[in-house]
Amino acid sequence: MRRRKRRNKKLLYALQISWIVLAITATIVMITQSSKWFGNGDDADSTIVNAEGTIDNENKGDPNGSLDEDSGNIHTGTPTIEATITPTIPPEGSGDQVGDGDHGQIGTPSITPGVEENDGSNNQGENSSSGDTTTPGENGGSSASSGNSDRVIDPEKPMVALTFDDGPYPPVTKKILETLEKYDARATFFVMGNRIDLYSETAKLVFDAGNQIGNHSYSHKDLTKLDKKGIEHEVDYSNELINEVAEVGDAFLRPPYGAKNDKVSEYVKVPMIGWCVDTLDWKSRDKNAVFEEVKKSVSDGAIILMHDLYPSTADAIELVVPWLIEQGYQVVTVEEMFEAKGIELEAGKIYHSAKQ
């Protein structure tokens, strides 16, 4: 009997020890796990959410890993635009603009500028193609610029045409206009139809200041990838919208991306304007880089490509225009330059310069 009692006590002690060991083990496990749960342990999960709202597992521990900003972006209190080379996917204008003027936040377009797709001819003069011969003065009464009887272009002196694509964009376009007016210079603005309603006031300012308004299509689609109906819509509808703001007649066309083929030549009934100097302003977003491109490449009869979307381009114009004048160049519109040089422009042809 005593032996049985003694054996039962031993079993009880064993069970008690087992429970104590289990309790200690459970406590240790709970303490260990709580460090991870509450982020206090060395192995705490440092995964962060990046700017696109997705998990970033490549930048653990670096709170700035995926949030770096490109210092070249526009910083004017407006949404920024990223220019990438995607000629096969023509971008549309963004839909977040709120109108013209200086009130409210102004959205910038989603444009991919600066990509030129040639139609097999790399010459900087005119491409041979059939078309009806027109002169700037006969192109619908006005090819795109407001009359200015006091302005005289000397055909014996060198001249260049500054051109701006993808606008208007009020903060930049208006600053460019101020510089042009300061030096009695003129330029050509190839505007997009889907921005005219939003920024009609700025487009009218361009025209009233004696500058030329050209057509850059309605929504920046690659015309070479469209059928006849698509081409006519992009070109003709945009031209209608332009003429609601300024009576320019049949505005010269700068095809998006500079892309042209036989089909485009057949269906476009106005002269097309390319360029021979690409400032790459969309890429550098740097006024000095733009200025250097102009100084390196400019010559008499040159057509210079820029975009009135970037504040850096407006800043560059403050350097470019006085420098060109100091070098003896007349800063003129495309229309003025071809007319002064006696070059007749033909519908359906594309001209990259007025070099003779």
Write out key terms for the chains shown:
356 residues, alpha/beta, TIM Barrel, 12 strands, elongated, single chain
Compute the separation of the termini in Å.
Answer: 128 Å
Provide the gyration radius in Å: 32 Å
The CATH architecture name of the domain at 133-351 reads Alpha-Beta Barrel
Largest sheet: 6 strands, parallel
Number of helices: 9
Q: Estimate the strand proportion.
A: 5-15%
Order of helices and strands: HEEEEHEHEHHEEHHEHEHEE
- The CATH topology of the domain at 133-351 corresponds to TIM Barrel
Helix content: 25-40%
Give the overall average pLDDT.
74
- Helix/strand structural class: alpha/beta
E-strand count:
12
Shape: elongated
**Given this structure, which CATH class of the domain at 133-351 is correct?**
Alpha Beta
Low-pLDDT parts are: 34-144
CATH superfamily of the domain at 133-351: Glycoside hydrolase/deacetylase
Account of the protein in words:
This protein is an alpha/beta fold. The chain has a domain at 133-351: Glycoside hydrolase/deacetylase (TIM Barrel, Alpha-Beta Barrel). Helices cover 34% and strands 10% of the residues. It has helices spanning 2-37, 170-182, 200-208, 228-245, 262-267, 281-284, 287-297, 311-326, 334-340; strands at 48-49, 55-56, 133-134, 159-165, 188-191, 212-215, 272-273, 277-278, 303-307, 330-332, 345-346, 350-351. Helix 2 packs parallel to helix 8 and helix 7 runs parallel beside helix 8. The longest helix is centred in the N-terminal third of the chain and has 36 residues, at 2-37. It is elongated, with a radius of gyration of 32 Å.
